[in-house]
Design a protein that fits this description.
about 230 residues; alpha+beta; Arc Repressor Mutant, subunit A; three-stranded antiparallel β-sheet; two-stranded antiparallel ribbon; globular
Length: about 230
């Protein structure tokens, strides 16, 4: 890595439209160019030009299905980069212009997906609960304990994954780390698959379901974050 190469990477994200695209794609889904254009409030031709640059730089990957072209973040490392950059922004309170915007912002802060793991107050609460119940330790960085590994084995075979099993990801709303890595993805997938957590609309926001409130309290003990 050289200085000019790093500067080129930073320049890619130093654009309002491209940064907005990357933040939207943190939901882990594939979006069409038209969807991203509408989300960012730019013309489709403008969106296409920006997407070409992000794909060429390896930050996004594209897939064609019929007449549609879909893009998504290239991998979990790119998602980590975007989320951690966002977490280093100063906490500036920007009043929402509409009730809908205020509701959406509150939902993201309460619980959301960060690519493929949980973030927001819910993600931090799950991380704290895993540590409190002896499944996770932060004594020397994030790591699952032997008891945690046995518990994780019951969720999904993740130890053969090519990325770290557990790592901390700085949460941009809570200003604390939540669990990421292959283990964090497995926990998120498990909670969604069991119906304990569900997505809110089509964005990144998630919420705990009534069944999830009971199940998470039984699994981890009482916590305000489990309130449906």
């Amino acid at each position: 890595m050289t200085g000019p190469a790093l500067a080129r990477l930073a320049a890619l994200l130093a654009d309002d439209t491209r940064a907005t695209f990357c933040l939207a794609l943190l939901d882990g889904r594939a979006w069409t160019a038209g969807e991203l254009a509408g989300h960012a409030g730019v013309a489709p031709a403008t969106a296409t030009g920006h997407l070409h640059k992000l794909v060429a730089a390896g930050l996004l990957t594209e897939q064609r299905q019929g007449r549609h072209r879909y893009v998504r973040l290239a991998d979990a490392r790119v998602a980590q980069l975007i989320e951690e950059l966002a977490a280093h922004l100063p906490p500036v309170a920007v009043p929402a212009r509409t009730l809908r915007a205020a509701t959406a912002s509150a939902a993201l802060a309460r619980g959301r997906t960060c690519y493929d793991h949980l973030a927001g107050r819910l993600g931090v609460a799950v991380t704290d609960a895993l540590e409190r119940t002896g499944r996770l330790t932060r004594a020397a960085g994030f790591a699952f304990t032997p008891a945690g590994l046995r518990w994780l084995d019951g969720l999904a075979p993740v130890r053969a994954a090519r990325r770290p099993l557990a790592r901390g990801c700085l949460d941009w709303t809570e200003r604390r780390e939540h669990l990421a890595g292959a283990g964090g993805a497995a926990v998120c997938e498990h909670l969604l698959a069991r119906g304990w957590v569900t997505r809110v609309g089509t964005g990144r926001a998630v919420r705990v379901t009534p069944n999830g409130s009971t199940a998470l309290a039984d699994l981890f003990g009482a916590d305000p974050a489990w309130t449906a």
